[in-house]
Amino acid sequence: MTKTRRSSISKLRSSCRQLFKLKTTEDPCNDDTDTNTKEQTNLAQHTNMYAEEQTSSHPKGISVHCLRQTLLREVTEAGLGEESTIYQLENLRKNTFGVIRRKGAANKCPRDGGMGAAYVDCLEGEDNVGPANRMLSYLWGYTIGDIIDCLEEYCVNNRMDPKRTYIWICCLCNNQHRVRENVPFDNFHTIFRDTVLNVGHVLALMAPRDSFHYLNRVWCIFELFTADATDDCKVEIIMPPRQKEEMLKDLRYYDNLVGVLAATDIENAEASKEEDKIKIMELVKRDTGVAVLNKHVNDLLRTCIRRVILTAVDDFGAQSDDRSMDLEFASLCFDAGQLMQEHKRYDDALILYNKALVVRENVLGEDHLDTALTCNSIVEVGRGLEEALVIRQKDLQVKVRLLRKALVTRENVLGEEHSLTLTTRHEIARAENKLAKLVII
After folding, report:
1. What is the pLDDT of residues 309-318, one digit of tens each?
2. Nearest Cα residue to 333 out of 316, 315, 356, 312
3. Which of 144, 168, 295, 388 has the greatest count of CB atoms below 10 A from its CB?
4. 172 contact partners, CB below 8 Å, separation of at least 6
5. Which residues are bridge partners to 2 per DSSP?
6. CA angle 435, 439, 440 (to 5 degrees)
7. Greatest CA separation found in the chain?
8. Which of the 8 DSSP states describes residue 56?
9. Cα gap 163→133, rounded to integer Å
10. What gap in Å lies between CA 414 and CA 418, rounded to an integer?
11. Using CA atoms, how far apart are residues 316 and 336, in angstroms rounded to an integer?
């Protein structure tokens, strides 16, 4: 990350803190709306209290186990199913309670004492509720089945217990009885910010089938940026298992994925409330710049998608009885390798091509056209790696030279035992160690 980008992100963090402190104001000149003003003032005080108490301690999350065993049962009992979207589970435009608000309608909120509690506040037992260790970023247009399938697969892949994997998901952990009353932007944003800080691990759920509609929403893009720009916060992308499989099958034709990522533009994204977009855009334009944010999110997405693809390829191979003889696995490795090579991820491409080569040599033989094509690809990647190593070597040489100049200055001005002097020595040692490991053939 460049110094300019670090500075921009630092400014954004500072501005976020200021933005979250803003309070809504009423028009004192409007004498005809005294009753309205009192109601709005009461609402503002009510939601300010809710936001403060919501973020005063570590947020609660619902377990993946509870999502499947409890929530889904309640969805079925309501005459809905796994294909139902969150909007269908709880339509906040209607006065009639859906699955989510109905759960806590008769309960008092433990934060503000008012009637109507969040879904998560109605759960008991550590198999169902606990301190959130993951935060889900998603769309209300996703189906409850896809959300649960994603989280269950995530638990399996990461060897996590579904009963101890607690998810902070806004529809269940924000009090929808208060959101229905139109919680001000600043309070809602405060809850989001503090949840990111406290949970420290965001899962962004994206669906290839809908052309990553997630990236057309202002809040989603801003959530990704805020999470990634937050110290000690990890961001991962997860996808519905079936859609991920479809993506892998069409991987060789999946260059449009890069186009989708490159087209990510927060200015063109949408928001349910125009006020939200206006405030977010004012913040971004003033302190970070649209171009910096878009590039930052684009780079983050490329990295995350690459990890998803590599993990999915390994998962596919693990399902094979003998992947050293599985031509379908070889084809998948070759296609993924091409994608990595096109985007100069040469290390990843080389690993994938070598996996494909092993299978094709075993099954097709050394003289087969597909085997020869794989060998040729490995040679091309080798050239790309060599060029990348030369560039990397030059970058490290420049870095060492500049650090040595900085070391002389700090030793003279600050002294040899000053913390900054010691840090500079450590950075030089690290850079020289990396340089020593580079071997240009």
Report:
1. 888 888 888 8
2. 356
3. 168
4. 62, 71, 100, 118, 119, 120
5. none
6. 115
7. 89
8. S
9. 12
10. 6
11. 12
